[in-house]
Amino acid sequence: QQPFLSVRDLKVHFSTEDGIVKAVDGLSFDIARGQTLGIVGESGSGKSVTNLTILGLHDPARTRIDGEILLDGQELLTASERTLEKLRGNKMSMIFQDALASLSPYHTIGTQIAEVYRKHTGASKKEARARAIEMLTRVGIPQPDVRVDDYPHQFSGGMRQRAMIAMALVCDPELLIADEPTTALDVTVQAQIMDLLKDLQQEFGTAIIFITHDLGVIADIADDVLVMYGGRCVERGTKKQVLGNPQHPYTLGLLNSMPALDGPVDVPLSPIPGSPPSLLNPPTGCRFHPRCAFAEKVAGGKCSSAQPVLEVIDGRGSACHLETSQRDALFADYAATA
Ligand code: SF4
Ligand code: MG
C-alpha cells in the first residue's frame, strides 16, 4: 500500500547574499493515514523548512527545491499554485507556535473560520457560521455561540491556539502539520492542547506531522520519530526505538539534555556542548562531528572526512560511522556517567 505522504530525497536550498543555505539536504520519510510523525531537532535543523515546503510556501525565485513529495499520490513540488491553494486548508493544513500570526486582528474568530470553510466548500454564510460554532465547540471554547463573535485579542493565548486548531481542522484535512504549537503555552494549557489534538486525531483520522525541539512532547504524541540535524535526518524509527534505544550520538545527547520522562525532575542535565552547524558552510563529513563525544572512537578520522549514510531497514535507521557493537558499549558507558 502506498503511504499517504511520501517525501523522497528532498533538498531545499536558499540563495542568500552570503551564499547558498542548504536548509534541507536529502530527506526522505513516509507517513500513513492517521499516524503521527514527530520531527525533532534544534532550531535551524530544517524541520520547519521541510514542512513549509510540503505546503508549498517558499518563494520560488530564491529557493531551489529538489526531490519528490507525494500526497495521496499527487506530486506537490510540480503542482501549480492554484492546486496548492486548493489543497492548503482543505486536504492539508498547519498550526504554528504563534496563533496571532495566523489569525487576523481585524476580523472576528468566527468570520475567519467561516471564510476558510466557505472558500473550500462553497457553503453559505449561514452554514459556515454554524460550522465555525461547531468547530469552536469541538476544540473546547466555552459559550461558542457567543465567543464566535470575539476578536482574537479577546481570547486568551490558550483559547487562540484552540481557535487556530479549529480553523486548521474546519475542512477535515487529512494531513495536519503542527509546528511547535504548544511551545509558547504554560504547562497546563500545553497538556490540554496535546490532549485535544489526540482526541481530534482519533475522531478525524488525521495524519499529523508534529515538529518540536522537545522530546517530552514527542514521547507524548508521536508514533514514529525522525531526528534532524543540520538539514538531514540522523535517526529514525518508532518512538519506542528512538527514545528507548537511541542509535545516534545526537539523539543520545538530546535525551541526556531533558529530564527523564518518569524520573525525578531535579537531576542535573547535560546539554550538548557546542552549537548547531552553519548551513552555509556545514562541517565536512558527519555534520555532528564537531560536537560528537564519540568522533575520535571512529578510526582514520572518518567522522570529519566521510559523510555517514542513513541506512533504513523497516523504518529504522541511523547515520553514524560507529559499529553497532562499539556503539552499544560506548552508549552504556555514557549513560552510566551522564
Ligand atoms: Fe559522531 Fe562520527 Fe557518528 Fe557523526 S559519524 S555521530 S561524528 S561517531
Ligand atoms: Mg521552527
UniProtKB/TrEMBL annotation:
Compartment(s): Cell membrane
InterPro entries in UniProt: AAA+_ATPase (IPR003593), ABC_Ni/Peptide_Import (IPR050388), ABC_transporter-like_ATP-bd (IPR003439), ABC_transporter-like_CS (IPR017871), Oligopep_ABC_C (IPR013563), P-loop_NTPase (IPR027417)
Annotated keywords: ATP-binding, Cell membrane, Membrane, Nucleotide-binding, Transport
Annotated Gene Ontology cellular component terms: plasma membrane
Membrane-topology annotation of the record: Peripheral membrane protein
Keyword Nucleotide-binding in record: yes
Gene3D superfamilies: P-loop containing nucleotide triphosphate hydrolases (3.40.50.300)
PANTHER family in the record: DIPEPTIDE TRANSPORT ATP-BINDING PROTEIN DPPD, OLIGOPEPTIDE TRANSPORT ATP-BINDING PROTEIN APPD
The protein's name in its UniProt record: Peptide ABC transporter ATP-binding protein
Organism: Streptomyces mangrovisoli
